[in-house]
Structures are given as C-alpha cells and as structure tokens.
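Hi R.,

Here's the chain you asked about this morning:
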Amino acid sequence: MATLNIKNLPDGLYKKLQARARRERRSVAQEVTNILAHVLEAQAPLSILDLQGLGKEHWQGIDAADHVRRERDSWD
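And the predicted structure, written out as tokens:
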C-alpha cells in the first residue's frame, strides 16, 4: 500500500480533520482515505444532455406548452 505525506497542512484544517475522524471513530489516516475515496469514486453529475429523452414515454402525445399553461392556471 502507498504512503502519502502532506506538507504544509494548515493547523485549522488538521484540527477539523481530527474532529471529523473522532466523530466517525476513525484514525486521521482512515478518515483521509475515506474522504479521498468518496470524492474520487463519486459519479460525475449528469448534464442536461445526459437526461435528454428521459421520461419521454410519459410525455408522449402531450403538448408541453398546453401542459405548462394548465399547471400555471392551477396556481391561482
């Protein structure tokens, strides 16, 4: 397993890291590993282009402008 040394870590940040590790009942090293794994393995958020066509079955045959107009009218 690799070893990571961090130089010039601000004291305030280290204290926050220690507090978080203590809350999670982990060592500081375990908490850093957990944070890095969570951030680096997280899926990238979908863009609007990735959502194109999502739910099209639901909206098939429905006029979008008419639907929006009826929704807005129902707010009154």
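The first helix runs from residue 11 to 23.

Let me know if you need anything else.
M.
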